Predict the structure.
Amino acid sequence: MSEKRFPISVEVNGKPRIGEVPARLSLVDWLRDELRLTGTHVGCEHGICGACSVLLDGEPVRACLMLAVQADGHSVRTVEGLGKPDGSPGLLQDSFCEMHAMQCGYCTPGMLIAAHALLEAVPKPTEDEIREAIGGNLCRCTGYQQIVDAIRHAALRLESGKR
Ligand code: FES
Ligand code: FES
């Protein structure tokens, strides 16, 4: 007997997307495997590492801990949705490049999502606020300092109107 599937309708990066998903399919698997939005990474699959972070109605969530059916009727933004409309890197992505805030890049999508949510809420964050905002995202490579610097750099660019 084939597994029962449920219809979902989700706004993903500003576009309406529909699907028919098994009840136990995680949101991150739907995004990556069915929508081919592979910018969102899968690490621990236990809610620990933050690599799978996406914005759900503007708030960062772990997409490995959410079911795709739970996103029905909501809006999801992935790292692909942080770029400029012409497809070039957005402010934070550009700042991460400028400040060398990535090495292997595995944590980067989740860090960008956490940083984006922070700057939306607190455009001029302190270093403590930046560290707090990315505190749930693990990075094995950078030692975090360049990531903090990149987020501060993006905030300064935001303040000066240079996007
Ligand atoms: S893959 Fe979701 S928190 Fe690690
Ligand atoms: S850059 Fe490798 S895990 Fe962060």
The chain has five helices and five strands. The CA atoms of residues 104 and 141 lie 7 Å apart. The helical segments are 27-34, 91-98, 108-121, 127-133, 145-159.
